[in-house]
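Troubleshooting: if your tokenizer reports a length mismatch, compare against these two reference records.
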Amino acid sequence: MAMGSIRASGGDDEDGLDSAPMSEINVTPMVDVMLVLLIIFMVAAPLMTTGVPVQLPKTTAAKVAQAKKPLEISIDKDGQPFLAKEFLSAEAILPRLRALAAEDPSQVMLVRGDRDVPYGKIMEVMGLVGQAGFTKVSLIAQSPGGPLPTAPAGATR
């Protein structure tokens, strides 16, 4: 018995090899190359962000100011206004707000009002905030299911 190769096609080429195209692609070398490139970029990326090392000059210029914490005016359930935790009488609201606006008119003012306070009272306080010179005024509301807001000190009577 003769031992020969079994071919799918019966025809032989001139060199004795089968000319049928290979129907499977070997992706293992491609995956190996991609993993090596991934590792190279993971190692090189942090090195590229550092930039060129330089000796920076010293300066006496003031540092850039950080964003200030916004001011907060609260209206308790009795309709009494509080600036942070400081009670403000009806006569003292506008002068106090004007003094704060004179220091920094771009300061953000947040208005918190108890849900039992009439809407007109909250709008009255917002009007005073605008008259004082604040240009950035926002209302604070509680999102559904969120924690209950804390009352300012001295608000409970």
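Reference record two:
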Amino acid sequence: MTAFARRARATAARMHPELSLVSYTLLSHLEFEGGCRATDLAAHYTLDKSTISRQVGGLEKSGLVERRLDPTDHRVHVLHLTDRGNEVLSQVTDARRIAFHERLTEWSGPDLEKFAECLLRYNDAASRSDAGDPE
């Protein structure tokens, strides 16, 4: 697992010079959610608010994320991808898909199915564990 995590971080660095694995993850989440508050990011990833604040600050400085007032509550700022953020995320996502395809191109159908089944099982167990669910 350590080798997998190291490879993921190194791959992210090669995909785009200003996008770490954490940055990619946060941008992906913002895209999926269509924007959210920094406190929502902190809660989702079980990170301290100050950690998220530093990460978001870097993304804002890079022009990848912007804060907008929540139309339903003007006391709240919602984070959204900028046009540049969408472009960079799309480039990195495409590059990751190509890299995965290249790594798995020689795998048989049954091997790919087993791999996908194991990943789903692992992610399900991790989600339950993160949620504090004993099952």
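Descriptive notes for reference record two:
- Residues 83-104 form the longest helix (22 residues).
- The chain is about 65% helix and 10% strand.
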